[in-house]
Amino acid sequence: MMLGCLQSNLFYEVLAYWLLVSGVIGFLAMGVDKARARGGEWRIPEATLLVISLVGGALGAAIGAVMFHHKTSKPSFLVLFLPVVVLWLLALQWAGFLGRLGTYLPQ
Fold first, then answer.
1. d(CA 45, CA 71)
2. What is the pLDDT of residues 27-40, one digit of tens each?
3. CA pair distance 18, 43, nearest whole angstrom
4. How far apart, in whole angstroms, are the C-alpha atoms of residue 90 and residue 41?
5. Burial letters for 30-49: b for 16+ Cβ neighbours within 10 Å, e otherwise?
């Protein structure tokens, strides 16, 4: 099992795997797009970055945006992206996922 705190609940465990995989994809998409932007190459469309975020990669994409300094100063992207991140956090809190993880974090 991926996380001991989630293994007693199949929903939480599947969600954890989904968020991990989609988060890594979101993170990598931001990094690849930034690298392509610097090199003047073909870019990943913003719509694709938003779809990745909508389907679960929002947290990874947010981390990637901050780490790579990518899309963080583009208001037209942020006005769509940031609500997606907030909605994911609210949904995870509502589902009890964040609280369940919190009980297993180091004190």
1. 12
2. 999 999 999 999 99
3. 25
4. 36
5. bebbbeeeeeeeeeeeeeeb
